[in-house]
Predict the 3D structure of the following.
Amino acid sequence: MGGKLKYICPICGFDEFKNAPYDENGNESFEVCHCCGFEFGFDDVHEGHTFESYRAKWIGEGALWFYQPTKPINWDLNLQLGNIEKIQPMYLPCYLRNRNQ
Ligand SMILES: [Zn+2]
């Protein structure tokens, strides 16, 4: 172990967040994911997306990297999507926690 703990995007699996997308109280970070462009606390609540619906839309539109300057050279979408299953329920927003229990 060691090193800084990083957080994972529940949409695309991008794992370079310094802040939890949703903290232990379910509060949103309002960060925008560099990869899929999802804004925590905005695209979910105000745009009415679920993680699944946004992910399906994003992949359906070609899974384009949102913020090009940070795109890894050897980016592997499927490898990154595998990160999603490592997310712990405490890092999900309140309204999704009950469902996962
Ligand atoms: Zn993302």
